[in-house]
Amino acid sequence: MKLSELGERKLVELIRKWWKGDGRLEVGVGDDAAVLRMGEERLVLTTDVLFQHSHFPPGTSPEQMGWKAAVVNLSDLAAMGAEPLALLFSLALPSETDLRVFRRIMEGMERAARKYGAALAGGDLSENEEIAIAGFAVGRGRRILRRGGAKVGDALAVTGKLGRAAAGLYILTHSLPVRSYRELVRALLEPEARIREGQILAAEGATSAIDLSDGLAANLWQLARESGVRMVLERIPTHPLVERFAREGRLDATEFSLFGGEDYELLFTIPPDRVEEVRKKLRRVGRELSVIGRV
Known about the structure:
By secondary structure, this protein is of the alpha+beta class. The chain has 2 domains: 3-141, CATH 3.30.1330.10; 155-294, Alpha-Beta Complex (Phosphoribosyl-aminoimidazole Synthetase, Chain A, domain 2), CATH 3.90.650.10. It contains 12 helices and 11 strands. The strands form 2 sheets. It has a 6-stranded mixed β-sheet. A 5-stranded antiparallel β-sheet has the order 8-10-7-11-9, sandwiched between helices. The longest helix has 19 residues, at 62-80. The chain is globular. The relative contact order is 0.16.
């Protein structure tokens, strides 16, 4: 059987069967990150790889490549409620890459690391036909969020509004004029990691969480499956600019929010009596909470 016939989710299930557990490992394959016990604290580890022709749409600058390679890894730490400690990168580039391009990729990584408080700790260099960047992020925390913790009766919620990155990708891939929709394109090329938001959720009793990298529909299914529960989706918090763009283009805004992906907001579950307190604390860091359903 070929890997293409299995798909990513079935491959992950196979890895879970093949790899033996370890007493030090609290969370392993299948979550946003792995978690190791380190006394009272937990060490959180994650990795993601991005390829130039698969993950960076036309118009992506070298700085944005470096930034995004950092943020997609930091977002996994955010989903666990962890504090970033360090970033490492393995870069594979064509031998004819201009040194200035290489330097600009480094600058994007450094800017993201500085913003989120992670040390750039090193990495590896190799040659490849296209640019490929594998990132590795290390974080720490005491109470770690997982995908598999939702309880019946919990509220289902999300940080922020959805659909901007998917709408931005539509603009770029259809060669549409950016004009008043630069924010949508920027959301795609320069995503944000919701680090502080994840720490608030962990401290305030969220029962499960996942970052919205694959789209609300896919990540909701993952959260429900890992928690062994059913979730009822009652509303979709689409960003107002996405709704305007969709109206002007006679498109379905829900498609962008539900299936687009790369929003990197946090989807989570929480006891209903904790919602208002979390809402207040998220507002203090400039982020809204939307209750979108129930468990």
